[in-house]
Task: structure prediction
Amino acid sequence: MREYWTALASLMGALAFMQGLLHAVFPAELRAAVARLLGRLTRGFSPYCYFDVTETDGMSNNEIYDAVQLYLSSTAAPSSGARLSLTRPHNATSFTFGLAASDRVVDAFLGAAVTWEHVVAPRQSPGFSWRPLPEEKRRFTLRIRRGDRDKLLPAYLDHILASAQEIRRRSQDRLLYTNARGGAMDARGLPWDPVPFKHPSTFDTLAMDPDRKESIKADLRDFADGSAFYERTGRAWKRGYLLYGPPGTGKSSMIAAMANFLGYDVYDLELTEVSSNAELRKLLMKTTSKSIIVIEDIDCSVDLTNRAALPPAPTKPRPSIDGTVDQDAAGAASGRSITLSGLLNFTDGLWSCCGSERIFVFTTNHIEKLDQALLRSGRMDMHVFMSYCSFPALKILLKNYLCFQGDADDDDDRGAEVMRGLEEWIDAAEITPADVSEVLIKNRRNGKRQAMEELLDVIKARAEKRRGSTASATRKQDGGGEEEEEKRALGSPKEGKEQAAGKDSCSDGQDEETDAKKQL
Result:
């Protein structure tokens, strides 16, 4: 054993002597050149290509490095089983994962496997620098097969950049914009005032028929994923929705559910604050992509309902005797206001394509008041009728407010009887989801059974009241018809007498005329 350790020590000493001799004979530049040559020879026979993505590019940050880090932390890393670091950025709503130092992760794109390695090395002490540099040098090394290079680059990097941008947008809080100042700009040159948008409405909590909700969600998915389709067909990447129906049927909740489903910002456009078509175009140009532009109660905002009854043409103000012009009269004559033509160009004109991936949503309680040009396809592509509460929608409201689970909660006879009563009377009552929600909110502390019984009483009373008013209106119409017939029957003899009296007076007049002629 002692001889073994002696031989090992002699070998280590010989190796140290040879290393010192090489360092003394061969300078560092020559050793580096030999190392690079050996590396090239090795890579020449390797079936892989390597690409380094550094954290900084000179004095600026590398955008690709940040995108790769965000992409790997949200897509590839959680499913790969690698060691991760957990962080939550400022003004974000979700956690993000990061790769630890010298860790690897495998990803796939277009059927080809790629390998990412996160390399962290200490930075050598630099000289003078205007900008403080981090103590460590970080980079991502991408390894792909040589045969997949043309297929993956640059399509794979474009995919990473687009995915990272989508992840940033979804992780940040959505905003609700309003034009409180009309079209006037603020100090930053923006006409919109943003506030955080935290509406909790989703399609799962929306009181609507499930089949209709699924069709709307499918249409929204097709729109969000339709970049290639709209580009191929030559159409502007936008879509219009018209939500109409009685008040309290959930039109505003539908807009919030659409925004939460797509992750879009919302622009609430108040037309009464806009004074001209030029300001309307200015507001449109300052909206961002991936947004929903909303005009609520469009039939009540401005007078855009009827083009047949056009106002008289404005007259030019005449100067007075001294040659001055009344400025108030000139402003009234110029007619500075939004016109139907300006709104149509806003939704479907040349200015509507200055952005991409935007949805226009109009709401109204009276669709018959709107001009037909505003309702055609291309401007309002989908007409969604927000009806009264149906039985499927009622079950969604019971689940939201009472945690009602359907058949699991109505095992006894009384519960089944209440559900049958609700199903029987809900259509005849014509009650809105807002009214149903108010009844459930008031009785939610009394238990499920009592709240549902109270709701059944309210629905029954409303249905009976509606039937009574309908019957009275029908009787009134029938009674009115009988009274008119009686009046006509009673009035006919009088009319005959008047006609006879008229004939007698005419005959007397003719006799008098004949006597006068005889006297002459």
Remarks:
- The mean pLDDT is 79.
- The radius of gyration is 40 Å.
